[in-house]
Each structure stands twice: as C-alpha cells, then as structure tokens.
Specification:
Blueprint: H1 17-36, E1 47-52, H2 58-69, E2 73-77, H3 91-98, E3 104-109, H4 114-121, E4 126-131, H5 137-151, E5 158-162, H6 169-178, E6 184-188, H7 197-205, E7 209-213, H8 216-219, E8 225-228, H9 239-245, H10 253-256, E9 264-266, H11 287-306
Parallel strand pairs: 1-2, 1-3, 3-4, 5-6, 5-8, 6-7, 8-9
Helix pairs in contact: 1-5, 1-11, 2-11, 3-4, 5-6, 5-11
The structure holds phosphoric acid mono(formamide)ester.
Phosphoric acid mono(formamide)ester (CP) binds at residues 56-59, 130, 139, 268-270.
Length: 310
C-alpha cells in the first residue's frame, strides 16, 4: 500500500484493492466518530482549496462539509469566471498560486487530464473532483462505500450501469474499481452511448463477466444494484446526437415490478428525468443515502492525504 500523506487522488486506476478498502474502512471509522460528535479536530489549522471550473452541488459541498467536520477551513471558487483564469491565467499558474494558500486542493475541470496536470505542478495533495468524461474517483469510493453499507459486501453482486456509459465519468471510474472485485457487470445503454471499447476490453481481461445490452427490461430481474446515470447533454459535440438518445430510460414503478425485491437503485445525481420521483420513497431507492456517503468518504480522503489520520 502506498503511503497516504501527500498522496494525490487522480484516477481510481492508481488505487489497489487494498487502498480502496483502506479508504472505506477509514470512512467507516470516521462515520462512527461523527455519530458521537458532530465535528472532529483532525484537520484543525489546515486549509482546503476547492477549485471548481465546472458546476457542482454534491462534490463541492460535501468536500467543504467534510473539511469543516474535520475541524479545518475552506477557501476556493465555484466558477472560473470569478477567478483570474478569466484574465487568461494558466491552470499551472493558478495551482502554483493556490498551493501557497492551502494544504490540499480539490479540483473539478472540464478537460480530461487537468487534475493530473495540477497534481504534477503542486507540491501539496491534489484530489480530482471530476475531469471531463474521464474520471471521478471520489464518487467511485463513495459508491463502493454505499454498496458495502447496503449489502455488507461487494463480491458476488450483479451490478448494472445504465445510461450514458460513453461520456459518464462516474461509470468509467466505477467499472474500473469494480474490476478489482468478483462481480458480474451489466452495461446497459443506447448503442450511441456504449462504454468505450478500451474499458470493456480491460474489464474482460481482468476476468469480469461483462454483459452489454440496450434492453433493461430483459435483465432487470437479475440485478442486485442498478446504477442509473444522466445522459450528459453538455458533453455531446452535436445537440442532434443528444436528441436521439434523450429520455432513453426512465425508471418508474412499472418497470420495478420486474425487479427483485432487494434491488437497490443508485444514481450519482443530479438526475433529470431518468428516475421518476415516485421511486424515491420505495425501498429500492438509495441515492440519497449515497449522497450522505460523500461525507465520511471525503473526510477519509482529506484526513489521509493531509496525513492527520492513519
Ligand atoms: N455526483 C456529482 O458529481 O454531483 P455534482 O455534479 O453535483 O458534484
């Protein structure tokens, strides 16, 4: 296992199974401590900088909340137009500046590879909060934490990723992480939005049983987890292409009649119309518990990379 203090969190590919389990176990420890006290002091005197070049509700606010729960403070910006990037400053100079003010950086950027570049420039740890269609490793860790919380395990489950598998960074990271476990993976999407071939090939090479289909109804009865994603309108180069796949899947009470009683539905959120609100009160819906998982998991990542917990 790699040393944690000072470590960057850029891609789930950089994490061994042992690393993943270490983060999940640390998050569980911190969640228990949070039940006893609403805030802790591990990060007292430390500063988190959140640099969001793309919109976010959950990732930014949960990182900020996590840092406050650890006793630390937060600075940052929520859109590039309020920073000196607007005046033409490079990402490199922005990072070299921000690291003078903080102890850890969380960055979301529309360009694939931007977080990796930031990590190469910065001396302090950098955490990727999503880079284009590429990776969203902290979302993946909270997804795994949620699955473990619900089922007590990840191995042995039949897990479907549904929706925009082409542009969705959450499903790219999650499928790669799941390849470290003994799961069966169902990749359900319109033809236009299939999982990139290199990821599917890699999953198969790692021995994951992968089934690709566009027909949710045919397989829903077999699933333990249905991970639904939004069609990522903002990533389509051509709006006409988006219109061809818009509304491809809507999870509603009707289709759930074909599901196992124990099926759990997840979604990284935000949703648009792919899960009908009538599903929210059912025992299948765990997407708001999933939102909560962001707190202990991001607390664990901050505390470990800052080196204030072991
Ligand atoms: N799941 C997620 O990344 O949500 P936000 O875009 O709101 O951060």
């Amino acid at each position: 296992m790699q040393r944690w203090k000072g470590r960057d969190v850029i891609s789930i590919r950089d994490f061994s199974k042992e690393d993943i389990e270490y983060v999940l176990n640390t998050a569980e420890r911190l969640e228990k401590k949070l039940k006893e006290r609403s805030s802790l002091e591990y990060a007292k005197g430390k500063i988190l900088a959140t640099l969001f070049f793309e919109p976010s509700t959950r990732t930014r606010l949960s990182f900020e909340s996590a840092m406050h729960r650890l006793g630390g403070s937060v600075i940052g910006f929520v859109e590039a137009s309020t920073s000196s990037v607007k005046k033409g400053e490079s990402l490199r100079d922005t990072i070299k500046t921000v690291e003078q003010y903080s102890d850890v950086i969380v960055i979301r950027h529309p360009k694939e590879g931007a977080a990796r570049l930031a990590a190469e420039v910065a001396e302090i740890p950098v955490i990727n909060a999503g880079d284009g269609s590429n990776q969203h490793p902290t979302q993946t860790l909270l997804d795994l934490y949620t699955i473990k919380h619900e089922f007590g395990k990840i191995d042995g489950l039949k897990i479907a990723l549904l929706g925009d598998l082409k542009y969705g960074r959450t499903v790219h990271s999650l499928s790669e992480a799941l390849s470290q476990y003994d799961v069966e993976l169902y990749l359900i999407s319109p033809d236009l939005l299939r999982m990139p071939r290199h990821i599917v090939e890699e999953l198969k090479e790692k021995g994951v049983k992968v089934y690709e289909t566009s027909d949710l109804e045919r397989v829903i009865g077999e699933l333990d987890v249905l991970y639904v994603t939004r069609i990522q309108k903002e990533r389509f180069p051509d709006e006409q292409e988006y219109l061809k796949v818009k509304g491809s899947y809507v999870i509603d009470l009707e289709i759930l009649k074909k599901a196992k009683e124990t099926l759990k539905i997840m979604h990284p959120l935000p949703r648009v119309d792919e899960i009908h609100p009538s599903v929210d009160p059912t025992k299948h819906a765990i997407y708001f518990r999933q939102v909560f998982s962001g707190i202990p998991v991001r607390m664990a990542l901050l505390a470990l990379t800052l080196g204030v917990i072991e």
